[in-house]
Amino acid sequence: MRIVRGAFLVLLTVILSVSALLGASALQWAQELPSLEGIDALDFTATSKIFASDGTEIGSIVPVFGEDRAGINRIPVRLDEVSPAVLQAIIAYEDDQFFDHYGFDLPGIARAFYEEFFGQADRGGSTITTQVVKNTILAELSANRSLERKAKEVMLAIELERRLTKAEVLQRYVNVIYWGGNVYGIRAAAQAYFGKDPIELNLAEGLYLARLIPLPNSYHEEFHDSRESMARVLNRMVIRGMISSAEADRAWRYRLEPKGWKVTYDRTGNVVSLERTGDEVIVQESVSSELSSHVVFAVRNWLTDRFGESVVFGAGGLNVYTTIDMQAQRAANSASERAEVPQNAQLAIVGIDPGTGEVLAMVGEKLDPGIEALEFNRVTQARRQPGSSFKPIVYATAIEQGGLHQATILVDEETIFDQQGQEVYSPTNHDDEFIGVATVREHLNLSRNIPAVKALEAATPQAVAQRASELGYSDVQPFFSLSLGSFEVTPLQHAAAFSAFANGGTQVEPHFIRSVIDAEGNILYQANPRLTRVWSEQTAYVVLDLLHGNVTDVNPTAFSWRAAVEGRWVAGKTGTTNDEKDIWFVGITPGMVAAVWIGYDEPQPIPKTMVRSDGTQNTVNSSRQPIYAWTDFVENALLGRPSDPRGFPVPDGIVFRSFDRISGEASSEGTIGAFLEGREPSTTSPLNPIKLEVAIDSRTGYQATLETSSEFIEVIEIKPKDLQRYLSPRPENPIEP
Q1: Under a CB-based contact definition with an 8 Å cutoff, are residues 349 and 361 in contact?
Q2: 713, 696 in Cβ contact below 8 A?
Q3: How many Å is the Cα radius of gyration of the chain?
Q4: Contact predicate 521/698, CB 8 Å
Q5: 3 state DSSP class of 609
Q6: Of 235, 247, 432, 538, whose CB has the highest number of CB atoms within 10 Å?
């Protein structure tokens, strides 16, 4: 008896000591509990969604965490966005006493302990409330299975239940739970496993997702075990009156097939065959889009520049509304895929609405079907020289400040330009020849270099550099070489500069994001693009008309003639850089300005020919490949949309006159062009009194060349307007290299 009494005293001492220790520990843990002041807005990361201009979701940015920057794919939902059957399934699996306890469930813990060791466990001892605490407030202790963590969970769960309703706790639960891979929350899980929204899920799908919660990556690989578990839970739900036998039978017979599995069933709902497809559908990249990765990457870069990585990749949950037009973006994607470019060359396409500055579409590389686009976006990130495609800005400045007009005579001849403090500038033409006297319009049609430099000289390099800066170009220096596009631009900058011509001389700052709204509905950003008056309405229209001639003029045919689109008014300019390392086309049509660039990432001369997909040989230059891609894009981007073949509205102060593109004199048989009122071509050209001496090859009747023998040379006097007939015949469709 004395031994028994001694043992009892020892046991009582141990119990009291442990109780005292636990009590002291509990008191200390209670003092260490984190604050619940912000419990009404539990902070968890969420996937940011990106929308096109019509509200269609086009991509997402998944938050990342940890040193390896693993992504968290989570899109928060309200309870009314979740199927009631799914909520039933989750409660049945995870906490069937959820509506009866106050944050913790002692019988549930005991039952989970028993099933873990003596039966088949379909749930653990944690309640839904304690799981919310574990995955949010105590996330840093979630991997710690200590008594301290469990005690803190219970304490915080009791306080959480005191502050929130059951519905509010359940809503937080379905948004924070981990569902495998980088999928968090019911919306991401529903989309990842079944390609549905949570409201569309049925009871069988809800049970499958609920079954995954304890160990989602492992349980997704154990389909047979999951079916057995689902059968037990369905039976338990019927016994407890949560569903009827008929509802349980329908759920069991439903042909459940989560992504990654190919399953066949018999008529009773039993699995007949099972095959793992290997699809890793539950893993999502940090940035993803089925429409355009380049758009989403551009959005991500813009967001991080403006708000910082902590907002974009930390909290996330942003709704980003872009300017992207679905039809135009699909057209750009297809045009890039179909475009034929020299081997290993790259391509960029961008389309802008000139009236709003909104980017309608962008593709930053030569796309190939079935191959994922890379992150580098040449539309916004590649800086290359615009070459001859910059000439319209030079001529616009010369028209506005230098007194030039379409019929102004300029002479294409060997010329040396003095530059103060710099070496003399002696440009050549792409064909190393000179065509002599012609109008501004003709020289632009044939992209002659020396007349463009003379136009810059008339306006002054400083004036052209100033206008270029106003248009958004950067690092522009006032040298004569500026007239030939010797600085670097992005395709987006270049298209935006041309948009001022199509918007009455006012440039609207280009942008591809309309607004950004956070998870609470607060507007973080609303587009308010800068407006810059660069040209007068009249100058802008005259240049539009010049560029329209670059597409429509014949005899000789202008370089951009292939850009003509049936039923649409089109204007544009080709561009080639020194050493032919870049080729461009920038085109304008009502509703869109678009630029296409082709070249190599490591600058090198573009080959003069290439073999097309059909095996034929094709010349490579700015009058071909960029224009082919441009017309493919624009035709499909604007398909089915209204078109006015008359082009843009004519401002006051503009008159139309017919003139000879060589002599510049008024001619009823000439080309009709737009002029500022009071600065029209004269009925008598100022060049008519001038006589030119021309050496003629008497055998051909054309201008003599270096190869013409002196015995066949005859010198005659002609009027400048008649010079064209004595020049060597030009090809029907001359090509700019």
Answers
A1: yes
A2: yes
A3: 37
A4: no
A5: strand
A6: 538
